[in-house]
Amino acid sequence: MSSNPFAGILAEPPAPGSGSAGWRAVATLYHAYFTGLILTVSSRAGADTAGDWIFRTFRRQHHDKFLSSFDKLGLSGLPHAVAAAQYHFLSNSVGGVEVEYMYEADDKAWVRFCHPRWLYDGTALCGVPLQVSHGFLNGWYGQNGVSLGNPRLGFVCTSQDMTAQYGLAGYFREFLEPLEPTQRLQFAPDEVPPPFDPAKAPRLDATAWPPERLHKANRNYAMDYVATGLPELVALVGPGEAAALGNLAGQLIGRQYYRTLQSLLGAEADDAAGFARFMAAMFAAQDDQCEIVEDGAQVSVRHRGWRLMRGHERVHPAVFDAWSGLWEGCLAVHNRFLRSLVVQRRDQGDDCNEWRLRPG
Question: Which pTM was predicted?
Answer without folding.
Answer: 0.92
